[in-house]
Specification:
Helices cover 34% and strands 17% of the residues. It is built from 7 helices and 7 strands, in the order αβαβαβαααβαβββ. It has helices at residues 11-22, 54-66, 81-96, 131-139, 149-159, 161-166, 179-190; strands at residues 29-34, 73-77, 101-106, 172-177, 205-211, 214-219, 222-225. The protein has a 7-stranded mixed β-sheet.
């Protein structure tokens, strides 16, 4: 698919795949990615129902075709249509190239944090343009009626990073999520306030592996050791 190499919004996904290919196949590998190209979300009700465009499905399959298949893959996803459609398409492309899928499982932390007041979502633009600001304000305790950021990040690390580090074989874990959980993970790993530049395009995200004996994060073309407090 020539467009995969030409469409601007696939740049982050292409870099992530290239990084994954270069990693030691005897080490576990994790990708935490945003879903693929989706329909425009008109309102907050659409946030839980919007699916992928035809292009989004095609590029998800192509990403799966390009991932290294030496490891068995376990795919986790948000139950929202655009995420499980992305996960299914990646699995299709991965399997086409001879990759083995261990399982595909929904994961609540990849949807959104728990909340008791639905009005809290009025602070988040349906299409996510202000997601970095939302996560920063949430982490600073500015919202009521929502799970604390500190509690959510513990659950998110348990379900992603710690799950990866607990496996006995070098598996590939693929987590398909939304802006919100992906940006929450970035704020957790970076231990700083987010900027607009931290937001990922469709299929972009972060990677984790072990280099030497050090759990290492890949993001935006750079690698960095993961803080021991998160392990």
């Amino acid at each position: 698919m020539n467009n995969w190499d030409k469409v601007e919004w696939t740049a982050s996904a292409r870099n992530l795949v290239d990084w994954a290919i270069r990693q030691d196949m005897n080490r576990p590998l994790m990708l935490l990615i945003r879903h693929s190209h989706r329909d425009v979300l008109r309102d907050h009700q659409d946030m839980l129902s919007g699916g992928l465009t035809t292009l989004g499905k095609q590029f998800s399959i192509e990403m799966g075709r390009r991932l290294p298949v030496a490891r068995r893959a376990h795919i986790f996803f948000s139950i929202v249509p655009r995420c499980y459609q992305t996960a299914e398409a990646i699995a299709e492309g991965f399997s086409e190239q001879g990759g083995e899928i261990i399982d595909m499982d929904p994961l609540p932390t990849l949807v959104r944090p728990e909340y008791t007041e639905s009005d809290v979502w009025k602070n988040l633009n349906p299409n996510g343009e202000n997601v970095t600001d939302f996560v920063n304000r949430w982490a600073e305790g500015k919202f009521e009626g929502i799970e604390s950021f500190d509690d959510f990040k513990v659950r998110l690390m348990d379900d992603t990073l710690k799950r990866l580090l607990s496996v006995d074989e070098p598996q590939l874990h693929i987590h398909v999520t939304h802006d919100l959980s992906l940006m929450s993970a970035k704020r957790t790993f970076f231990d700083r306030a987010l900027t607009l530049e931290d937001r990922e395009s469709y299929l972009g995200g972060i990677g984790v592996t072990i280099i030497g004996s050090t759990p290492t994060l890949y993001t935006s073309g750079k690698t960095m050791p993961i803080e021991q407090t998160l392990l």
